[in-house]
Amino acid sequence: MLSCAAGAKPSPQEYPRLSENLAASPNLQVRKVLHGEVEGLFALPRTQQLVAVAGGYLWKFTAQGELQDTLRVPGGIHTSGIVFTPHYYSDWVYSGDRRRKPYAPTVDGNRLSQAELFAELDRAEHVEFGRNDTSAWAYLLSGGKAWILDITRQRDKVDTYCRQRTHSAEKLGWDATCLGGYHPARKGWTEIEPGDFDSTGQDISRVKVVDFDRRRLHLEEGLSGQLLGATVGVALKALGVPGNLPSRYWFGDAHTQLRVGREVLKFKAFIPKEDGQFRFPNMAWWDPSPVLPGANPWFTVHPRSYLHHPGEEALLRHYEKDIGLYLVRPRGAVPGQAMGRGAGAWRPVFTGPSTRSYAVSANVEFAAARPGEAAAPAAHTWLRSPDERKRHAGMGPQIPVQALWPVLQTVPSALTLHWRTSSEEEDTQLRIELPASETRAAFERLQGGKGPLELVVQVPDLEGPTLGMSVLLRSGSLQQALPGARMAYVDNTARPASARKASVQALRDANAAAQRSPGALPAFLQIAQDLAQDLQRVQGDASDITHAYAQLINHFNGREDFAASSRLVRHYLAQVYPSMGKYQRDDKQVYNVGVIASQTLAFAMRTNERDLAEAVMATLIGPGFDPAVQTNGTLMYNLSCYYALTGDKARMLEAIANARRLGKQPAQFLRDTDFDRYRQDAEFLQAVNAPT
User: Fold this and answer.
1) CA torsion 563→568→574→578, rounded to 10°?
2) Where are the beta strands (DSSP E) in 408-543?
3) Cβ pair 419, 427 in contact under 8 A
4) How confident is the model at residue 497 (pLDDT cuts 50, 70, 90)?
5) Which CATH code of 1.10.10, 3.30.160, 1.25.40, 2.30.29 fits the domain covering 497-689?
6) Would you list the domain boundaries of the chain?
7) What's the pLDDT tens digit per position in 255-287?
8) Residue 110 and residue 131: Cα distance in Å, rounded?
9) Which pLDDT tens digit goes with each residue over 376-402?
10) Distances in Å between the alpha carbon of 159 and those of 135, 177, 180, 288, 655?
């Protein structure tokens, strides 16, 4: 508790509100890094990072308060920071990896003595325990690999409710496990316990209030409660009933001086003045320096504990903007929030179906501002916040949690998005790579618009193929599409069967449209390219894509529209085959690659596109081609024509023999002008007329 120090009234500029992020001294500054109620803070000595828990999310910061990543608090998380379940584990807190990972094979620890067991546990970096009605086990994690140690013999000593008297134990309720007699040799992270904001714990105050601006007279329990207390309450007190009557006191802006070392930082804090004393009941001091030597102090402003009580919402309006997590750090410890130069301030936005209580987040990578310069470090941000939580009757208002996101000012080169819609799912991860010149030109074109500059990622179906997604830049009513953006699901994100069915159907529809009208061919090419370049989908869709190209080339060849056929083959070789040529997953796909090669050879030499024929021979046929195992007679016939025209007699005779084996008749060879130079050649005539 503090009394007001006497002195001249300070100027308003000298004492900014905390939420204005202007409080500073000659060498230090106070910076807000997170808005909302903070429920816990943990330090990671190995990486010099801190993880805050707020709004159902884990927020990973550097020691200087730079946000690096966020993750929705997963089910099964233990007080060690690891998610251990019987089926998988996740170590994002330490590795940054969001995936659910499988365990190594289970190890039998039942033959170990107690000393041997404890030594085995000590060798692991992280240890937790589990049990059921018949068994017990230890979860061990070390060197990026986890395994389960069967310790059923120790079942009676395993406790899965080892609650410690810590701040987070009450606030978070995470799984806490232990084994009787065993004390872990090391801890991955350490919880930072909050202390009083205004006291160092040594009867020394770190704050001084030099002035107080009254804002609101607070009546505990509201006007009705005050009246009840003044009548019934007074009577009960006279009868000796224990308890306190509701109080009345002023809330206001305390002109506060915070001493950190030899520095004094000045700001306004909205606090009560009771009985002539100033209190900071909704502020807390978090000091990680015992775990991270030399670390900066952090502090929080949190909502008062009784938001559902009468009069509390009226108070909340005066300090709601100040609620959040703050850091006291040296000036210049972090460069300005702007991430480079050259694009003007912009923000990424996600549009698509609701992800409910889950945010859509992204790691944004940047292009170098100038050739030869290093690109700015990647930034983590949210493209869309979770849906707002509903307020239930009898409960106080909900305080949304948000980071103070960096102001992005550099042209982006790529984004990796993460989203999910339930705790049962793993994160969907979508990578978007932006074409450098087109993106920079679009940013330059839309700079100076009336609205904020936004990079919009449009995802109409959260489980759908990338071919339905798009990226555009907009400012107010102006917008510019970025059709060259490449999108692909990454990190083995499992797509449901319904999504694959939808993408294949879209390809078939585009195929049919192109057969009805050549003008629809560009749409087919784009859909096929999107599918082929979807890194997660290409293996499963390779056969259908190849079949579609074979069908269309056949169709256009039949109509002697060789220009359309040529366009198809060149696109297939340049944009599709490089992504999926290695996925020859079934006989149908292998056969259709042969159809594409065959049909290309059928027209390329006639249209004087020898380069196209040679490209097909080098890629789709290739040096490992074995005529003896082929099942496509037309391919072997067209190969024999190609070899005849290029003068490769030996390969021509081999191709003729295999074409005859597969049903091609002698008359077809004898009528074809491609073999004119061999009409009187005995070996040619023998190969053509040989019995099959």
Assistant:
1) -150
2) 412-419, 428-433, 453-458, 470-475, 478-481, 486-489
3) yes
4) low
5) 1.25.40
6) 12-39+194-330, 46-188, 346-388+400-489, 497-689
7) 999 999 999 999 999 999 988 899 999 999 999
8) 14
9) 899 999 999 998 877 666 677 889 999
10) 13, 6, 8, 29, 75
